[in-house]
Amino acid sequence: MKPPPFEYLAVDSVDAAVGALAEAGGDGKIIAGGQSLLPMLNFRLLRPSVLVDINRVPDLAYVRDDGDRIRIGALTRHYMLQTSELVAAQLPVLHEAMQHVAHLAIRNRGTIGGSLSHADPAAELPMMTLLLDANLDVRSASGRRTIGAQDFFLGALSTALEEDDMVVAIDVPKLPARTGWAFEEVSRRSGDFALACVAVTLSNREDKFGRVRIGMMGVGETPMRASEAEALLEGQPYSDGLVDAAINAIRASVEPNTDLHASSDYRRHLVGILAERAIRKAWTRAMEGSDA
Ligand SMILES: Cc1cc2nc3c(=O)[nH]c(=O)nc-3n(C[C@H](O)[C@H](O)[C@H](O)COP(=O)(O)OP(=O)(O)OC[C@H]3O[C@@H](n4cnc5c(N)ncnc54)[C@H](O)[C@@H]3O)c2cc1C
């Protein structure tokens, strides 16, 4: 199928992009990598009158060391994130996640800003920003604001962005030294969207769980944090029984959909298996990295 007709505007600044969105009065769409937008247009799921192409805006594609944070430009391609030495060194769990995002051809075009704004419930980057407590910098013609990842994802393909907003950058706090981490995903074929996925970061504080973060996706309309399981683990010494209790809490907290790819029960079972593997692996890494 071909897309419906639209006006095409290639802009060369963020001001011009948000100005064009404001002028379109809710009927404009940014095009970044086009990997999700073009299928939506071709299937006539979207009919914007204006496409605002941001690919020529300078200084929107970068990964920078910003003290205790990594700052990522919205137009950063998945491949650039996947191969960034800074990300590999400071955010190894994100580096691992990027190996699972789509196929190379899509990673060469797709952008972090596009993936977060599209908000597919089975996409890796939304879950990773939620896991890592990232903030999104957003611009519109009326100003700028910051939205925490925990407030950004509202539903499947639905975010806190207004129609004339543009994501310009993402700030991700670096992982403290000796943080254990793990990323576990199951998809039918390499590069497919996940059936379910869990990522964990945790610290070892005097042989007890320190801060624990558990992110999940594929089991709800948005990526989720397993807050109850996080609270169960924090401050407790590691034991198999404690991990089992956390897994039970995770399974009880999700209501996955049944769809063509998997049943609700299968996804609930799977997320528990993945969480168990991820917690154990992250704990082992935290122990290896600790001075104890
Ligand atoms: C076959 C296939 C397999 C895929 N598999 C995976 C996978 O396994 N995991 C995964 O995570 N993704 C997967 N994807 C999606 C891919 O990662 C896309 O690149 C990504 O979801 C969208 O990024 P984009 O830059 O292409 O955005 P676009 O398609 O250009 O835009 C997507 C949406 O975001 C909006 N947008 C884009 N940039 C901005 C911005 N800066 N500010 C505000 N709004 C913006 C657009 O208006 C549009 O609504 C797959 C895609 C395909 C086609």
Radius of gyration: 19 Å
Number of helices: 12
Uncertain residue segments: none
Average pLDDT value? 95
Helix content: 25-40%
Bound molecules: flavin-adenine dinucleotide
Number of strand segments: 14
The main sheet orders its strands as 4-5-10-6-7
Which strand-content bin applies to the residues? 25-35%
What is the 3D shape? globular
Keywords:
292 residues, alpha+beta, Uridine Diphospho-n-acetylenolpyruvylglucosamine Reductase, domain 2, Uridine Diphospho-n-acetylenolpyruvylglucosamine Reductase, domain 3, Enolase-like, domain 1, 3 domains, five-stranded antiparallel beta sheet, four-stranded antiparallel beta sheet, 12 helices, globular, binds flavin-adenine dinucleotide
Q: How is this fold's topology laid out?
A:
Blueprint: E1 7-10, H1 14-23, E2 28-31, H2 37-42, E3 50-53, E4 63-66, E5 69-73, H3 78-82, H4 85-90, H5 92-98, H6 104-109, H7 112-118, H8 124-131, E6 135-140, E7 143-148, H9 149-152, E8 153-155, E9 158-159, E10 166-173, E11 180-186, E12 196-205, E13 208-217, E14 224-225, H10 227-233, H11 240-253, H12 264-289
Parallel strand pairs: 1-3, 2-3
Antiparallel strand pairs: 4-5, 5-10, 6-7, 6-10, 8-9, 11-12, 12-13, 13-14
Helix pairs in contact: 10-11, 11-12
Bound molecules: flavin-adenine dinucleotide.
